[in-house]
Amino acid sequence: MSAVADVPARPWFGGHVRLVLGAAITAAVVAMALLSLVWTPFPATRMRIAMKLKPPLEAGIAGTDALGRDIFSQLMLGAWNSLSIAILAVLFGMIVGVALGTAAAARRGFVEETIMRFADVVFAFPALISAIMIAALIGSGAKTAIIAIALFNVPVFIRVSRGLAQRVWANDFCLAAQAAGKGGFRITVDHILPNIAGGVAIQATIQVWLAILVEAGLSFLGLSLAPPAPSWGRMLSDAQTYLSQAPWMAIAPGLAVAVAVLGFNLLGDGLRDRFDPRTAGGA
Fold it and tell me: Using one digit for the tens of pLDDT, what is the confidence trace for 256-282?
C-alpha cells in the first residue's frame, strides 16, 4: 500500500470558478467530437458545388465552404481529429517523459545527468521543426503530427515528474522503504508514482491545449491529417483565399480552436487550484 499525503476534504467544485467553466467547456467540446463519430448534420466531406460559399443560416448553422461542404459538420469531425491527435500525442509524451523523469530522480548521478541533457536537446527543437524533419523522413500525416507533438511533450514531463519525484523521495516513508531493502524501481512503482500522479495529470491537461494549438499549426501547413479528413487548422488554411468573400470560413474554425484551448486551459488551472495546497482556497 502506497503512502499518499492526506488532502483536506473540501467540495470538488465549490469556489473554483475556473474548474467549473473549464470542465463544462471541455465536456461540450469532447461531446461534440464523440457525436461526430455517429452523426453530423451533413456528410462532412460531401461537396455540393451549387451550395458553395453560402453564409451561416442560409445553408447550415455555419454556412458552407468553397466546395459546398457544410462547415459545422466539418467542425464536428475536425474536433474528433484534432482532439484525438492532441490527446494521443500528450499521452505518449507523458508515458515516456514520466518514465525517464522518475528514473532520473531514482538513480541520480550519471543517469540523471544523461536524461536531463537529453531533455534539453529535445526541448531545443520546437514541434514545428520536429514535424518538418519527420515529414522529410516518413511523409506528412497524422502519424507525423503525433510523433512531433509527443517529442515536444517528453522533456516537459521529464522535468515535471523529476521535480515532483525528488520531493517525494525526501519523505520518511521512502527512506524507510530503502532501509527495508526495496530497490529504486519498486519504490518508484509503490510510492513515487501514486504521489506524483495528480501533478502529472494536471500538467497533461495543460499540455493538451498546447497540443491542440500545435496540431492546428501543423494542419495549417499541411503536415498533419491528409485531405479530405477535416481538421481545424486546414480549414483555416483553406479559408485564407476567401477571407473577404466568405469570412465565416475562417471565423468558425478559429472560434473552435479558441474555445477548445480555453476549456482545457481553464480546466488545467482549475485542477491546479483544487489540488495545490498553496492555492486551495483560491477561485
Answer: 999 999 999 999 989 888 876 555 444
Is the CB of residue 93 less than 8 Å from the CB of residue 151? Answer: yes
Whole-number Å distance between alpha carbons of 275 and 146: 29
**pLDDT tens for each residue of 147-177:** 999 998 999 999 999 999 999 998 888 889 8
SS3 assignment, position 41: coil
Alpha carbons within 13 A on the beta-carbon side of 89: 31
Record the pTM: 0.88
Q: Contact 142/227 with Cβ under 8 angstroms?
A: no
Cell of 250: 475562417
For residue 71, CA distances in Å to 25, 47, 154, 239 come to 20, 11, 35, 11
> Which among 162, 94, 86 has a CA at the least distance from the CA of 127?
86
